[in-house]
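Give me the fold.
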Amino acid sequence: MRTPVPGGFLVALEGIDGCGKSSVALALAQYCGEYGVSCVLSKEPTCVGPGAELRRSAASGRLSLEEEYRFFVADRRAHVERTIAPALAENAIVILDRYYWSTAAYQGIRGMDPLWIIANNELFAPRPHLVLLVDAPPEAGHTRIRARGDAPNSFEALEDQRRIREIYHRVQATTDYGVLIDASRPQRDVIKECTDAFLAAARKQAGDPASDAEFFGG
């Protein structure tokens, strides 16, 4: 597999539940695969250890704030060690469906300082080269959740999602690597804008002057 970005490239998809970020992550991974580019697709919370416990709590009831945050950090540390850091060391492109902006938003509405959460996570977790903030109104997110046959869980209460969205917007405004994507449009338009932003950021990281097509296909 080709590795066009020396040192690897880390992109995180963020947004409220039901915004369409998972579909974008899959589309970006497929794009890399079609061009034979080494790519790792992963998500948080993971499905093992603390991540599995967090996923169970979505159905059974949320943990205390302190315990929930501790579980998220433990899960992320393990994720960095076993998946993210090794893939970047192999110069791969890493695509994450949620990362530490999610912790800033979801624990932020429970009283923690979102910017402190980000700073604390960046002590051990690689900062993304690009964050795609896939943005949609919470009402649209709930409609999508129900359309796929699910019911909103304990992380997905409508009023909470409004506050989470506000935190995401505040965090994105403080960075030069977060791109706000309007997800209220047709999916094909959202995926195209995300792909364009992904290619531009990857080319910048690689220092490659070629066109997008040459960057991945040449």
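The two ends are 13 Å apart (CA to CA).
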